[in-house]
Write a structure and sequence with these properties.
By secondary structure, this protein is α/β, with parallel strands linked by helices. The protein folds into 2 domains: about 140 residues, 3-Layer(aba) Sandwich (Rossmann fold); about 90 residues, no CATH class. It is about 30% helix and about 20% strand. It contains 7 helices and 9 strands; from the N terminus they run H-E-E-H-H-H-E-E-H-H-E-E-H-E-E-E. It has a 7-stranded mixed sheet with strand order 5-2-1-6-7-9-8, with helices on both faces. A two-stranded antiparallel sheet has the order 3-4. Helix 2 crosses helix 4 and helix 3 packs across helix 4. The longest helix has 13 residues.
Length: about 240
């Protein structure tokens, strides 16, 4: 829930500390590109949401943008997304309207953001996304599940997963956290793996934490402790 942009200055010095010039940086849960857009060099990003990847690829290719998203347009696009049909919109447009117009970037699951107390959330999201264009232009984007992504050996892998115990995005299947942690163990044989979560199994070491307020509705926040974990088998008691 929420953007990792405000944590980039804390996380990246830890994640990239020992990175070499030719080493890939990989995000299998790229979301809003709020960390990877601040990384240089070879980058790979993926997500299981095809509309999100269509959005990023479309921005790379200069697709035509809708700069005003009234609720009527948002509702029309949401209906087509729910029906999994493309009557009037392609995947890029459904992604653009959904991510620009949904509260907290929750993609048709958090309600229409619109305006609240003289603050235009849609316009803000559009402006913030357009500021990322130059930074994401040479990222290799893929639409696939995390365990299907081909990760070059020796990569640095950062995973910003759906947090356990929080409301998940609308996906076909619920996220299997046990399966994910085992996948991390497996790929850590050839790669360096970092994970953002509130909690992790004992063989993952917490290398950073910070108490923050998480916005769950326009007028409600929740205090949480953000943590960054790294696989460390010697950490098991």
């Amino acid at each position: 829930m929420g953007s990792k942009a405000r944590f980039a200055k804390d996380l990246l010095p830890i994640i990239l500390k020992d990175r070499t010039e030719e080493q890939y940086y990989v995000e299998p849960f790229v979301g809003g590109c709020n960390i990877i857009d601040k990384v240089k060099g070879k980058r790979i990003a993926s997500d299981s949401n095809k509309y999100l990847i269509a959005l990023w690829k479309g921005l790379q290719q200069g697709s035509e943008l809708i700069m005003e998203i009234p609720k009527e347009l948002y509702d029309k696009a949401r209906n087509q997304y729910n029906e999994r049909e493309n009557h009037n919109f392609d995947d890029f447009t459904i992604g653009w309207i959904g991510f620009m117009g949904s509260f907290n970037g929750r993609f048709y699951g958090g309600g229409y953001s619109g305006k609240h107390k003289n603050r235009d959330y849609v316009a803000e999201q559009i402006r913030n996304t357009l500021k990322q264009l130059e930074a994401i232009k040479d990222i290799d984007f893929y639409n696939c599940n995390y365990d299907q992504l081909q990760i070059p050996k020796g990569s640095i892998v950062y995973c910003d997963i759906p947090y356990q115990g929080t409301k998940e995005y609308d996906t076909k299947d619920k996220f299997n956290h046990d399966k994910f942690w085992q996948w991390c163990r497996d790929i850590s044989k050839d790669n360096t793996v970092f994970v953002s979560e509130y909690n992790a199994p004992n063989d993952f070491e917490c290398v950073w934490q910070k108490e923050v307020n998480v916005s769950i509705r326009p007028n409600k926040t929740l205090a949480q402790v953000e943590k960054l974990f790294k696989f460390s088998p010697t950490n098991v008691q």
